[in-house]
Write a structure and sequence with these properties.
- This protein is α+β, with helices and mostly antiparallel strands.
- The chain has two domains: 129 residues, no CATH class; 116 residues, LytTr DNA-binding domain (OB fold (Dihydrolipoamide Acetyltransferase, E2P)), CATH 2.40.50.1020.
- Helix content is 51%, strand content 18%.
- It contains eight helices and nine strands.
- Helix 2 runs antiparallel to helix 3.
- The chain is elongated and about 75 Å long.
- The N terminus is likely disordered.
């Protein structure tokens, strides 16, 4: 699992860099923001350098604060605004190194606006490119955490013997029944979903939908579509994340 996750993350990182290099080359061809007078080699080096560097800054900012913000466009706007000052510093030094001069102080306002516009465009392109793709994640409880032991005994007793010792993956409400998903398979039991949520409270997990509860360490990947999410769990099970629970889950660092 760890090797697969590392491979997926490496491929995503390569794709991220490739996307940013392509954006940089496109801006170089356009000669954006007054660089049309520069030579082709200079433009083709300058723009990919600042776009990739700025993109790395943007991804870092997004990981730190973006995941706590609900709303696709609000997240992009906040991340772009926060990253702009750091990207401006990068642009300043790259421009000095390549062109031998920096913008004068009176032009900082224009530079800020230019960097903000490009930052928003690049981060939007990145977000749209990955929207709908699975992003690997891991939410295993910390070592020594009591919640890592699995569901409490009160909940275990609801299950047949062969499922009690199996790893709990998710609980799904079906009318007056619960479909309990474990590594040993799924089992239908008679119980109210509200009672199950109370019994599972000590365990690392969370309600993701009006009819779904998910164990934290069972989550393998997440993807987003139009403000709603989907979780891919161990064993290939796919579970919805409704808008109602999205903000709370992101705030707790689930995604």
């Amino acid at each position: 699992m760890a090797n697969l996750r590392s491979t997926v993350l490496a491929r995503r990182a390569a794709a991220e860099i490739g996307l940013m290099v392509a954006a940089g080359l496109f801006l170089g061809v356009l000669g954006a923001f007054g660089t049309d007078e520069r030579s082709w080699p200079m433009k083709m080096i300058y723009w990919p350098a600042v776009i990739v560097g700025g993109g790395v800054i943007g991804i870092a900012v997004d990981q730190i604060i973006g995941r706590r913000i609900a709303g696709f466009w609000l997240r992009l706007a906040v991340v772009s605004a926060v990253m702009t000052t750091a990207v401006m510093t990068l642009v300043w030094f790259v421009s000095a190194a390549m062109f031998g001069k920096n913008d004068q102080p009176h032009a900082l306002g224009a530079l800020f606006f230019q960097v903000l516009v490009i930052s928003f465009a690049v981060m939007t392109l990145r977000a749209l490119a990955w929207r709908g793709f699975w992003t690997p994640t891991a939410l295993a409880p910390p070592a020594g955490d009591a919640s890592a032991a699995g569901p409490p005994e009160t909940f275990r007793q609801r299950l047949p013997a062969r499922h009690r010792a199996a790893r709990l993956i998710a609980v799904e409400a079906e009318d007056h029944y619960l479909r309990v998903h474990t590594e040993a398979g799924a089992e239908l039991v008679t119980a109210r979903f509200s009672d199950a949520l109370e019994e599972l409270a000590p365990m690392a997990g969370h309600q993701t939908h009006r009819s779904w509860w998910v164990a934290a360490d069972a989550i393998e990947a997440v993807r987003w579509r139009r403000g709603r999410g989907e979780l891919r769990l161990a064993g290939g099970l796919t579970v919805p994340v409704s808008r109602t629970y999205t903000a709370a889950l992101k705030k707790e660092g689930w995604f």
